[in-house]
Amino acid sequence: MRTLQNEHKELKESVKAAMFQKERLTETKRDRMLENILLKSHGQHPRKNRMKDWLSVVVCVALLVVGSVSVLGSDFHFWDNKKGDEEVKKPYISAAYIKRAEEIALREGDITSIGYYRKPNFLSLQLSVRDDINKEQMIAASEDVLKLLSHLFKMDANNSNNMGDLWNYYTVEIEIDYHISEKNYFGDGNSVVLKGYKSRDSSVILWREPGESEKKDSKYSLPDL
Amino acid sequence: MGDTINNPDQKVKNIEDYHKLSKMQKALFLEELLENYGEAIVRLAYTYVKDWGKAEDITQEVFLTCYLKLDTYRGEASLKNWIYRIAINRCHDTLRSWSFRNIFVTNVINKFMRSEEASPEFSIVQKEEYRKLRQEILDLPLKYREPFILFYHEELSVKEIGGLLELKISTVKSRLFRARQLLEAKLGPERG
Q1: A192 contacts on B by Cβ (under 8 Å)
Q2: A95-211 maps to which CATH number?
Q3: What pTM did the predictor assign?
Q4: Per-residue burial over A66-77, b = 16 or more CB atoms within 10 Å of its CB, e = otherwise
């Protein structure tokens, strides 16, 4: 009987064998491509200079307009600073932060991998966990990851019930599955065992198992991704 | 420069180094990138646009972007993934462009009118089974083809694919499953 691993390996080999048989980018083509790239990149310098010229013109016009308004004593407001300030304050969760959090979480032992997906004001975390831990331990490990990320941003919680102030800026969704080898994945795509959701204005994570109806708890409605 | 020549990832670990390189060294570095990733990128691009000429144009644009923007590479992802990201974005732009759709339709019509003949590449392979598999993979809808190629051909992990395509890992997994289902339906269970 063929095991899943064998099937997976066979499919990989078949795809590789079927897709491409000969080298497309021969040495001659590569040399020509290199030459073209170098020629094109040199051609970009005059454009840079033109950009500088245009930038100077725009800056001059802007200074002229701002200067005129100041002289005339106008009380016009060109923009609303409040919104801008809010945007500046919002911490940006970069790949580097997730990577750092993953390194630390891995040392703790329950988490085996952290994946993420980000949209403005929304973060989805995909946590893989050891297959011998129960749901309570999964929840605890997930909360630790959220606290850890807040800590990395120096936005620790003011009280112990909170996952940290970072989550006042991001709505977070958590999907947990048991650790599987990501290079040899051959499942049906439904490996998530627990899902959590916390909106920005809430201090708790709502948890449910994938089979549970979302209607049970009207607060638990995921944004359309 | 010399000892790291076979490992471009190693070479750009410290991004400040790239600023210090002379024009000649940058050109040599580009040559190394082309040698290491050129073939993979042209093949990847082909799985999107299904036209070798266009795939080579995309590859050239990708490496031009790399050459001009390498100083913006922050090292958060591997250099390979960074280049793949640029290539995937470029392929998406091409597929969206009006001119490409126009060329693609023309090619399809020409192919139909020419009474399709086996390409030289196919005559080398001479394996009907592989030809079928290849064709069915290329005929998969883009949203399934993309993760399928990256996973089975480029051997990236589901996590890396999620990062490259800006998709949730669970979405990548279910698209891989759906792609396999579609192939199985087309080719029969014994091949899927």
Answers
A1: 170
A2: 3.30.70.2960
A3: 0.68
A4: eeeeeeeeeeee
